[in-house]
């Protein structure tokens, strides 16, 4: 076997699911892959979009030896707790939301916070304008939350997003049935990804896409289609929330007391804005909810880090105690 370093090649992870990986190499070849021993025990397992160093054991299998540092990283809290990296090294996150029953500004805000924490740029694609006569009003509503938003019908034309996507690594995020795979197919110019009609009663999708997959785009760049997420617990700090709710964060700093709890204190700018209607109660509630979640996340990450440091030192101390030099 050849262990020389020049047999290590750079590759990109195009699929990552439970110990099974698929890599794409510079020459366009794809191969199944498994993490090498050392990597298997590290916390940082590769995610879709990662750049890795791999050794091609044979034509059918590669060994992943290391993961390159990530330029951006989209994470959520795994339903059972802990970090789940949804995609790495993404330039642009396209949050896809249907203009049918899927339309929900509060959920959109949650996606925006997740995007803000990732380091990637984000835009909103309001899909299915063909089934929603009041789409211009809804687009205006979304643009009041984030300026980077376009309305389109993936069945008619993807022109509104085709330009921003060109040449970059793009991930499509959104609920099941929002039309992510339909948009992916339109961008690819072929029906590669399976799609399925949504339930008529409530526009809910049928979780058609089951794996996150990176697909090369014909004009350069890459596209990651993802399964619709049922849950989206934040893996983000307070900064990301304040970034998305920029106006509210600024407003709250105008309260008379710097530690104002916005609960009826005199000179509270938030209460005043709620009273005049300048601040929508639902948006204020959404901000508070996400901020509380982000605070909780920050605390739990701190605790986890402290526990991890303690564990590491325990291992080191034990190793030192058992080292022959100290047992002479
Ligand atoms: N009317 C209309 N239907 C659309 C549009 N875009 C997608 N659809 C339909 O919406 C349904 C769901 O689309 P998919 O692309 O499968 O949705 P998805 O987001 O990939 O869903 P999951 O893979 O389950 O996460 C399909 O029947 C699509 O044909 C659109 O612009 N207008
Ligand atoms: Mg899909
Ligand atoms: Zn206040």
Summarize the structure.
This protein has 328 residues and is an alpha/beta fold. The protein has helices at 37-40, 105-118, 135-145, 159-165, 180-188, 238-244, 246-252, 269-276, 281-322, and strands spanning 8-17, 20-25, 30-35, 51-56, 61-67, 73-77, 83-88, 92-98, 121-127, 149-151, 169-173, 213-216, 222-225, 233-234. The protein has three domains: 7-67, Nucleic acid-binding proteins (OB fold (Dihydrolipoamide Acetyltransferase, E2P), Beta Barrel), CATH 2.40.50.140; 73-233, Rossmann fold, CATH 3.40.50; 237-310, Ribonucleotide Reductase Protein R1, domain 1 (Orthogonal Bundle).
What is the strand and helix layout of this fold?
Elements: E1 8-17, E2 20-25, E3 30-35, H1 37-40, E4 51-56, E5 61-67, E6 73-77, E7 83-88, E8 92-98, H2 105-118, E9 121-127, H3 135-145, E10 149-151, H4 159-165, E11 169-173, H5 180-188, E12 213-216, E13 222-225, E14 233-234, H6 238-244, H7 246-252, H8 269-276, H9 281-322
Parallel strand pairs: 3-5, 8-9, 8-11, 9-10, 11-13
Antiparallel strand pairs: 1-2, 1-4, 2-3, 4-5, 6-7, 6-14, 12-13
Helix pairs in contact: 2-6, 2-9, 6-7, 6-9
The structure holds guanosine-5'-triphosphate, magnesium ion (MG) and zinc ion.
């Amino acid at each position: 076997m050849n262990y020389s370093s020049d047999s290590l090649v750079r590759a990109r992870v195009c699929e990552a699911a439970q110990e099974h990986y698929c890599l794409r190499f510079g020459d366009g070849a794809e191969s199944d892959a498994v993490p090498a021993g050392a990597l298997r025990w590290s916390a940082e397992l590769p995610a879709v979009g990662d750049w890795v160093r791999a050794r091609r054991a044979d034509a059918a299998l590669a060994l992943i030896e290391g993961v390159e540092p990530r330029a951006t990283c989209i994470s959520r809290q795994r339903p059972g707790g802990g970090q789940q990296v949804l995609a790495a090294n993404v330039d642009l996150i396209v949050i896809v939301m249907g203009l049918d029953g899927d339309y929900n500004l509060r959920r959109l805000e949650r996606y925006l916070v997740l995007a803000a924490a990732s380091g990637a740029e984000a835009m909103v694609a309001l899909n299915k304008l063909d089934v929603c006569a009041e789409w211009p009003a809804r687009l205006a509503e979304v643009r009041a939350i984030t300026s980077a938003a376009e309305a389109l019908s993936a069945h008619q034309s993807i022109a509104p997003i085709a330009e921003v996507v060109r040449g970059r690594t793009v991930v499509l995020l959104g609920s099941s049935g929002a039309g992510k795979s339909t948009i992916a197919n339109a961008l690819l110019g072929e029906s590669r990804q399976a799609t399925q009609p949504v339930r008529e009663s409530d526009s809910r999708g049928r979780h058609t896409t089951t794996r996150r997959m990176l697909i090369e785009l014909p004009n350069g760049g890459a596209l990651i289609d993802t399964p619709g997420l049922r849950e989206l617990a934040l893996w983000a700090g307070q900064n990301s929330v304040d970034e998305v709710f920029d106006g509210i964060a600024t407003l709250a700093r105008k309260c008379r007391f710097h530690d104002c709890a916005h609960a009826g204190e005199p000179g509270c700018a938030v209460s005043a804005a709620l009273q005049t209607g300048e601040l929508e109660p639902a948006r204020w509630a959404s901000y508070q909810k996400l901020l509380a979640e982000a605070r909780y996340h920050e605390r739990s990450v701190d605790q986890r880090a402290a526990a991890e440091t303690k564990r590491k030192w325990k291992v080191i101390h034990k190793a030192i105690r058992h080292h022959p030099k100290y047992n002479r």
